[in-house]
């Protein structure tokens, strides 16, 4: 298999990102113009422009029309959001996604029970209140959207911005599995019961029960993903 060559623009973007991380360019500072950077790195202005676009998409710099390119305030949350394009959604990664959900969301439920305010609980209850009807009528896509809203609302109850950002990433990955047509992990009615119990534990500020219920809920997803992988392996062998 031939070795893939790294694009020049990616190399320039990586070097600039390293310089920004090392505080050679500080938040709010304007970067040199394209011609200066092109001369510094020994590349064309088009290559620099492509590198800047990549850094802009990643949230590391901000390109202001007519003013130049400026360094954004770098936060852990900004870096976490750059991970999504690097993650492929296939049957092999599905199990990994549910396993990491199990780790992250159990702690999220625990912290939610400790930190949730009345306003937070109202936001968790909103999608939960619509789940029974979506389950009863078999509206899978609507139910899955409500499910994502529920888990994101639980994360917001933690008041931990990094955890909330990670939950956004997980939600995008789970939404990708829905777009692939992956079937529900459990009967929808059973899922509604689990979500209701999780909400009740958080509302009672029972962190142990909230974490345990979330763990049991996502465990179904882990087992489902393992079954998919085993089925696919069997098909490949046959």
Number of domains: 2
Corresponding CATH superfamily of the largest domain:
GntR ligand-binding domain-like
Rg from Cα: 22 Å
Strand residues, percent: under 5%
CATH class of the largest domain, anyone?
Mainly Alpha
H/E order of the elements?
HHHEEHHHHHHH
SS-based structural class? mainly alpha
Q: Describe the strand arrangement of the main beta sheet, using strand numbers.
A: 1-2
Instruction: Please name the CATH architecture of the largest domain.
Output: Up-down Bundle
Terminal-residue CA separation: 27 Å
Overall geometry comes to elongated
Quick recap:
With 238 residues, the chain is mainly α. It has ten helices and two strands; from the N terminus they run H-H-H-E-E-H-H-H-H-H-H-H.
Tell me what you see in this structure.
The two termini are 27 Å apart. The chain folds into two domains: 8-74, Arc Repressor Mutant, subunit A; 80-237, GntR ligand-binding domain-like (Four Helix Bundle (Hemerythrin (Met), subunit A), Up-down Bundle), CATH 1.20.120. Residues 179-183 have low confidence and may be disordered. 71% of the residues lie in helices and 3% in strands. It is elongated. Helix 5 runs antiparallel to helix 10, helix 7 (140-157) packs antiparallel against helix 8 and helix 9 (188-203) runs antiparallel to helix 10 (207-237). With 238 residues, it is mainly alpha-helical.
């Amino acid at each position: 298999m031939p070795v893939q060559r790294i694009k020049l623009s990616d190399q320039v973007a990586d070097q600039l990102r390293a310089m920004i991380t090392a505080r050679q360019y500080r938040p709010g500072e304007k970067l040199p113009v394209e011609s200066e950077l092109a001369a510094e790195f020994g590349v064309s202005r088009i290559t620099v422009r492509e590198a800047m676009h990549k850094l802009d998409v990643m949230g590391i710099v901000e390109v202001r029309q007519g003013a130049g390119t400026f360094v954004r305030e770098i936060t852990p949350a900004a870096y976490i959001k750059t991970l999504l394009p690097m993650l492929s959604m296939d049957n092999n990664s599905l199990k990994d996604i549910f396993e990491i959900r199990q780790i992250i969301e159990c702690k999220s439920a625990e912290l939610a029970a400790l930190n949730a305010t009345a306003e937070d609980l109202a936001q968790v209850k909103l999608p939960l209140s619509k789940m029974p009807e979506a389950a009863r009528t078999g509206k899978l896509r609507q139910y899955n959207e409500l499910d994502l809203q529920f888990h994101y609302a639980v994360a917001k109850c933690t008041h931990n911005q990094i955890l909330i950002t990670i939950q956004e990433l997980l939600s995008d990955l789970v939404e990708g599995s829905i777009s692939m047509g992956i079937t529900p992990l459990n009967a929808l009615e059973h899922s509604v019961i689990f979500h209701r119990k999780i909400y009740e534990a958080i509302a009672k500020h029972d962190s142990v029960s909230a974490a345990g219920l979330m763990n049991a809920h996502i465990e179904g997803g882990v087992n489902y993903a393992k079954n998919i992988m085993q089925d696919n392996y069997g098909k490949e062998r046959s």
